[in-house]
Structure formats: structure tokens, C-alpha cells
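Quick sanity check, Transposase:
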Amino acid sequence: MFAPAPQQRIWLCTSPVDMRKSFDGLSALVRNQLGHNPLSGHYFVFVNRRKTQMKVLYFEPSGYCVWAKRLEQGQFPVRAHSGGPQPLSISALQMIVDGITVIRHRQSKRYMPQSR
């Protein structure tokens, strides 16, 4: 079970990443593309172009950790855009990992007669 520490920030890399990269390649992406320090302890989430694989890189006091998941069916609900890294909450990351897509639903106001 993957459970991020609640006090750490989570960053989603919104551009597709080559999933052959491991510790050194992903930490170089964090430093050069995202502009963050990979030793900060924050969680950095990467998804491939087909959105079927995900890797999470983070640093613990004893060293780097990489958590990976590959889907057999479907895709991760991640939108690619060029806005740079996107901050995520723990619940948003958990929904992405579980494959839950959040759709905004607008509830219209309805007439309710007053009770007399």
C-alpha cells in the first residue's frame, strides 16, 4: 500500500515521461524540468504518454524511493498541459491511482413550494 506522508507536498509532472527512467533519470527531471530539489522529501508523480504507467519518486532520509504502477486496462485520469508541475492533494493522488475521474456536476436551483 502506497501512503504518502501528510506533511509532504505532491507534485504532478504534466508532460509525458519515459518510464524506462529510474532514480537518477527521474531526479534529473525533477531538478531540470520541474525546478524542484529532489532531496526535499516531496513526492513527484510521473505518467507515461499512453497514461498506463505511473511512477512516484520521493526521498527518505535513507535514500530515494520509486513507487510504480502499471495498468492492465484503462488509463490514469491525468490531463497533460504545459503549465508546469501541478500540486496535488493526497486524496487527489489516491483518486488518480484508483482510476477515479472527478466530473464537476452543476445542480440547478429548483422551485420548492413553501409549506404552510
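Posting the structure with no commentary besides this: Strands lie at 10-12, 43-47, 53-60, 63-70, 86-88.
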